[in-house]
Amino acid sequence: MKLIRKYTHYSLLCIASIISYQASALNEKTIEVCEQNYNKVDELSMCFDSVKENVDKEMQTWINNQTFVLEEFSIVTGRRAALNMFKRSQRNFITYRENNCRWQYLHISPDKKAASAYKKCYILLTQSRIKELSRLN
Known about the structure:
By secondary structure, this protein is mainly alpha-helical.
């Protein structure tokens, strides 16, 4: 039991340092930077692609971290309900994000700005989820 706690504590410290490093490296391109530097719709969309990819990676790191914590908890207590509910909430978030951003895309289309609007929505919701997951740790 003591060994598991020590291992868990060490693992969390490692994960936290990786996340901090990734967050500083990934934050170079933001929505604001894209909007300030790219006026053409295609260029803005490509810049948003880069930001979207980065926030996806950061969110996956936080998901992995929370899953690890909840798996350790389930090993110690024998209770998997929190882990199962977390996984369900993550699936529900993905569905919500997709649908919420898709209706905005459909509302704006066929305007060329629709793709950028979708990506901006996706990025903002993902960043919000990252903040939520980071508070849990």
